[in-house]
């Protein structure tokens, strides 16, 4: 057993594709029952980390394990479900045939197929060839497989991509229901609002390196934000924030300062006016994960 | 079915215009039927090889490269099991092809001769072995090199092996009793298949390599002799069958070992 209590772990995992270092010494563990969100810009290494966990890619260095079994051994995949970012299925199979084949491979109960298809909104498509499916339907089909096989560990790469609003809500409910049964989740997503709602802990990766892991609320320096458009760009915006955490977008001349209260935010606006940078536009709003993440990325 | 019809038409067409030693000559009915069966079997084998060449590697590995196999390979089955299953699918296709083709050929010849050639069926497993060997080699190189280059290498091995076994064709084109002093400069390279002793380093080397080279062409010769009811054992090309079995197992094992370590 590589890592005693963790359901999913990477220990000093590195992977290079040619001259590109996709992962650089990733060390991370996900505990049983946890919903972990993996965030980062394009090319950060999120999908590589997931594909290593799924056994599709071998790391150049380090070890990864699933439920205590080294990745790569077929036993490690016995209780794991993987949702890839891009869903491709054999075009000439009907959905019911494909689900039946996949369920048999996973030694799961075939009677769960129909309820799972109903759950994701594809009950009437079981007899249709996959060739005619849209991207959203293929993603729903893959989610139906996960729902039917009900794994202990769900590896999800962009689970709500290509889905409409009802589809995203369906995914969120699937996660919450499975979590209630004790399942563990590792989710790579660009949709920060969803990650914020369902995840217990978030990891931020950039350039193949893990920058920070924390609960979503812990990533926020303060609960509120005052979002300001300035008339001109100061040489150094730091003094304008007066020691408070802030984010500065020089191109848009946009300053966002984290504050504890609305009054504190108004105090920031007044001080900017006194400093000769009266805001052109001011917005007081709750701080979000997006605001927090940008500060952790170079 | 179109290929089978094409093959049957070619068989009947070639039969009507064959020559021996470059001269039109009257031949016995027995020799004519023998030649018709031989040409027919070679056509079937040729198209079977094309099936292996064109769809074999893609059938086994195509879905891993195009993406649908992600769900299969993230299930709790080993990659070797996956490869074995896909290869068995290819084997079933080839088996069905051979049974259907031999059925057509045997039926046509039986209709013409009034005699059923039961030994045609006996040749099927040996021909299949040759095609499995080619499939294994193509698969191995597809895993290593990827894409079409694997097929190019496989074709070169197949063509080289086939050239090393020009027994029936060269027997009719070159006359098995051609004196060595009249042989063209390249003939000694294929010396083992001419009457008389091998001449020069080329022919000796060819004979040595032939013993260990993936004996696709040799296996085809054994299959042909078996199907035609000719004596195969002992000596002759009998050694090519166990060598082919070993090569086939090595090729598929090698492909499986490399596939297990391949990033997808």
Question: What keyword list fits this structure?
Answer:
heterodimer; A: 298 residues; alpha/beta; Rossmann fold; Alpha-Beta Plaits; 2 domains; six-stranded mixed sheet; four-stranded antiparallel sheet; B: 264 residues; globular
Overview of this structure, please?
The complex is a heterodimer of chains A (298) and B (264). Chain A is 31% helix and 28% strand. Chain A contains 10 helices and 14 strands. A 6-stranded mixed beta sheet of chain A has the order 6-7-8-3-9-10, sandwiched between helices. In chain A, strands 2-1-4-5 form a 4-stranded antiparallel beta sheet, covered by helices on one side. In chain A, strands 12-13-11-14 form a 4-stranded antiparallel beta sheet, with helices on both faces. By secondary structure, chain B is an all-alpha fold. Chain B has one domain (2-164, 213-260). Chain B has 10 helices and no strands. Chain B has helices spanning 2-15, 29-66, 69-73, 79-113, 119-144, 147-163, 167-175, 200-212, 216-227, 240-260. In chain B, helix 2 packs antiparallel against helix 4. The relative contact order of chain B is 0.13. The model of chain B is unreliable at 19-23, 167-177 and 191-196 (pLDDT under 50). The A-B interface holds A 51, 54-58, 74-75, 77-78, 80, 82, 84, 86, 88-90, 102, 105-107, 142, 145 and B 63, 66-68, 70-78, 261, 263-264.
């Amino acid at each position: 057993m590589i890592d005693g209590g963790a359901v999913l772990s990477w220990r000093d995992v590195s992977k290079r594709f040619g001259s590109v270092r996709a992962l650089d010494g990733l060390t991370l563990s996900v505990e049983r029952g946890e919903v972990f969100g993996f965030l980062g810009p394009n090319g950060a290494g999120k999908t590589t980390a997931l594909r290593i966990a799924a056994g599709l890619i071998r790391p150049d260095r380090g070890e990864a394990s699933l439920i205590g079994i080294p990745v790569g051994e077929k036993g490690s995949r016995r209780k794991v479900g993987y949702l890839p970012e891009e869903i491709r299925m054999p075009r000439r199979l009907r959905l019911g045939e494909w689900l039946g084949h996949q369920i048999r491979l996973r030694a799961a109960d075939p009677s769960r197929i129909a309820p799972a298809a109903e759950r994701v909104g594809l009950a009437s498509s079981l007899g249709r060839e996959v060739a005619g499916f849209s991207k959203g339907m293929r993603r729903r089909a893959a989610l139906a497989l996960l729902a039917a096989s009900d794994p202990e560990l769900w590896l999800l790469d962009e689970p709500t991509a290509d889905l409409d609003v009802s589809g995203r809500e369906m995914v969120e409910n699937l996660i919450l229901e499975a979590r209630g049964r004790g399942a563990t989740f590792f989710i790579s997503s660009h949709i920060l609002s969803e990650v914020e709602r369902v995840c217990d802990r978030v990891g931020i990766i950039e350039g193949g390196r893990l920058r920070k892991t924390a609960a979503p609320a812990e990533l926020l320096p303060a609960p509120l934000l005052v979002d300001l458009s300035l008339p001109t760009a100061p040489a150094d915006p730091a003094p304008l924030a007066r020691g408070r955490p802030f984010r500065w977008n020089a191109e848009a001349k946009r300053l966002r300062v984290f504050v504890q209260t609305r009054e504190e935010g108004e105090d920031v606006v007044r001080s900017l006016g006194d400093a000769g940078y009266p805001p052109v536009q001011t917005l007081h709003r709750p701080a979000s994960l997006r605001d927090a993440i940008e500060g952790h990325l170079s | 079915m179109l290929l089978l019809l094409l093959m049957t038409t070619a068989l009947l067409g070639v039969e009507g215009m064959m020559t021996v030693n470059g001269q039109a000559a009257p031949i016995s009915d027995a020799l004519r039927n023998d030649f018709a069966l031989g040409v027919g079997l070679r056509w079937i084998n040729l198209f079977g090889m094309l099936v292996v060449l064109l769809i074999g590697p893609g059938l086994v590995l195509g879905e891993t490269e195009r993406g649908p196999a992600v769900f299969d390979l993230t299930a709790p089955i080993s990659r070797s099991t996956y490869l074995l299953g896909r290869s068995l699918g290819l084997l079933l296709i080839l088996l069905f092809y051979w049974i259907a083709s031999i059925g057509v050929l045997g039926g046509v010849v039986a209709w013409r001769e009034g005699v059923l050639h039961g030994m045609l069926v006996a040749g099927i497993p040996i021909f299949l072995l040759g095609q499995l060997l080619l499939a294994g080699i193509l698969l191995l190189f597809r895993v290593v090199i990827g894409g079409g280059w694997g097929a190019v290498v496989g074709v070169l091995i197949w063509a080289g092996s086939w050239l090393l076994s020009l027994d029936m064709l060269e027997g009719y084109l070159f006359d098995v009793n051609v004196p060595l002093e009249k042989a063209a400069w390249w003939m000694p390279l294929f010396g083992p298949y001419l009457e008389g002793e091998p001449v020069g380093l080329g022919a000796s080397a060819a004979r040595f390599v032939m013993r260990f080279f993936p004996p696709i062409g040799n296996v085809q010769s054994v299959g042909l002799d078996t199907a035609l009811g000719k004596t195969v054992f002992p000596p002759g090309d009998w050694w090519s069958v166990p060598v082919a079995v070993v090569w086939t197992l090595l090729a598929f094992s090698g492909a499986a070992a490399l596939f297990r370590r391949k990033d997808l």
